[in-house]
Amino acid sequence: MSQGWSVRVASAADIAVWAQLRNALWPVDEVAEHEDEAREQLAAPGLHTVLAFADDGRACGFAEASLRRDYVNGTESSPVGFLEGWYVAPEWRGRGVGRALIAQVEQWTRAQGCSELASDALLENTGSHDAHTACGFEETERVVYFRKALREA
Fold this sequence. Notes:
Blueprint: E1 5-9, H1 15-25, H2 31-43, E2 47-54, E3 59-68, E4 80-88, H3 97-111, E5 117-118, H4 126-134
Parallel strand pairs: 4-5
Antiparallel strand pairs: 1-2, 2-3, 3-4
């Protein structure tokens, strides 16, 4: 019995729809910039992207992961798989799409020799916090970053 969607590894043929999903998550960048970044990710080692597609062929979610060898807050090992981006279209939420994307990322992360998968979310993004918790993530710490622009002396 079909669940109405499937998940697979992203390919060059997916760049346009992948960029649209990235734009829904990160609207500050133009779609063309997301397309360029998607092409770069496909060519880069240590990066992995999976996409979810509805049975009618429409893209409905994605997850992007990387291997991080530097310290990742709250982890105890290195390298660590890191969930760089995770998005499910609103009309597909609550149907297991996000959980299936994470399961694919976990499988890839284990295949890279990692024992931990880490992620982050903005403090105010409680929906993301809930989705992470539902997929078995545990909160490790909260951080506020600061910046100071330096003017020429």
